C-alpha cells in the first residue's frame, strides 16, 4: 500500500490525539517532569482540543495534515505563517512503529508546500532537531536545514531554477523551534521534533 498525505478531517481526531499524545510522552520522557508532560498532553492533544484544531485557520494555522495508509492515520503535522515571509512547522509526530519510512519527510514537505503557497518563494525549512538516540531525544538541540524538492520541478533537486528556487537565500524560511522559544498562537501547539538525516 502507498501512504497518502492529506488535510485532516474530523474523523481523524481520535487517531491524531492518540499519536500526538503518545509521541509527545515518548519524546519528552527523559527531558521534562511527568506532571508537565501530563498537563501538556491534556492542553494540546486531548480530543476536544484536536477537534478544534483540525480545521485550517490560515495563514496562522493550516490545520492538521496527516499521513495515512490502508485507512489508518500513521502521523500528523501542522504549521502556519508567522509573518509575511516566514512560516513555522509547529508539530510533527508519527506512530512509533512507522518511523524510518520517510513518512515524517512527506509530512514536512506537505507543510512546507502550504507555506510556499501562502508566500511564494519559500525554499527552506529550519527545525530544531534534538540529537536522537534509541531512547529518545537528548537534552541538547541543534539547528538543521531541510530543503524540500521544488514543487515546480520534476527533478529531485531543491534548486531547479524556477522563480521560487532562484529567490535564493532571500526566500522565506519555515521554522520550528523548541516549545519554550515559540509563542503560541490561538489554537496552535508547538514542539521540536527530529528531522530526517
Task: Please give a structural write-up.
The protein has helices at residues 13-28, 34-45, 47-53, 103-118, 163-166; strands at 4-7, 65-69, 72-81, 86-94, 124-133, 136-146, 173-176. The chain has five helices and seven strands. It is globular and about 40 Å long. With 197 residues, it is α/β, with parallel strands linked by helices. The chain has a seven-stranded mixed β-sheet, sandwiched between helices. The protein has one domain (4-176): Aminopeptidase, CATH 3.40.630.
| SSE succession | EHHHEEEHEEHE
- The outline comes out as globular
Tally of DSSP β-strands:
7
Q: Name the CATH superfamily classification.
A: Gcn5-related N-acetyltransferase (GNAT)
User: Helices and strands: which structural class?
Assistant: alpha/beta
Approximate strand percentage: 25-35%
Note the main sheet.
7 strands, mixed
CATH topology-level name = Aminopeptidase
Query: Portion of residues in helices?
Result: 25-40%
- The whole-number mean of residue pLDDT values reads 73
Question: Termini separation (Å)?
Answer: 24 Å
CATH class: Alpha Beta
Strand order of the biggest β-sheet: 1-2-3-4-7-5-6
Tally of individual helices? 5
Number of domains as seen in the coordinates? 1
**CATH architecture name:** 3-Layer(aba) Sandwich
Q: What's the gyration radius in Å? A: 16 Å
Which parts are unreliable, with pLDDT below 50 for 5 consecutive residues or more?
A: 121-197
Amino acid at each position: 500500500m502507498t501512504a497518502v498525505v492529506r488535510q485532516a478531517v474530523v474523523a481523524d481526531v481520535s487517531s491524531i490525539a492518540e499519536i500526538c499524545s503518545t509521541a509527545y510522552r515518548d519524546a519528552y520522557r527523559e527531558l521534562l517532569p511527568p506532571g508537565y508532560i501530563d498537563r501538556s498532553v491534556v492542553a494540546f492533544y486531548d480530543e476536544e482540543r484536536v477537534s478544534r484544531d483540525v480545521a485550517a485557520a490560515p495563514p496562522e494555522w493550516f490545520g492538521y495534515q496527516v499521513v495515512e495508509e490502508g485507512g489508518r492515520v500513521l502521523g500528523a503535522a501542522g504549521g502556519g505563517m508567522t509573518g509575511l515571509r516566514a512560516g513555522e512547522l509547529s508539530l510533527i509526530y508519527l506512530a512509533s512503529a512507522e518511523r524510518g519510512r520517510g513518512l515524517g519527510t512527506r509530512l514536512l514537505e506537505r507543510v512546507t508546500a502550504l507555506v510556499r503557497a501562502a508566500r511564494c518563494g519559500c525554499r527552506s525549512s529550519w527545525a530544531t532537531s534534538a540529537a536522537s538516540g534509541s531512547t529518545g531525544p537528548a537534552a541538547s538541540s541543534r539547528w538543521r536545514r531541510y530543503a524540500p524538492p521544488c514543487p515546480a520541478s520534476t527533478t529531485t533537486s531543491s534548486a531547479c531554477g524556477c522563480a521560487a528556487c532562484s529567490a535564493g537565500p532571500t526566500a522565506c524560511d519555515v521554522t520550528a523551534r523548541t516549545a519554550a522559544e515559540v509563542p503560541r498562537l490561538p489554537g496552535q501547539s508547538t514542539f521540536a521534533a527530529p528531522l530526517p538525516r
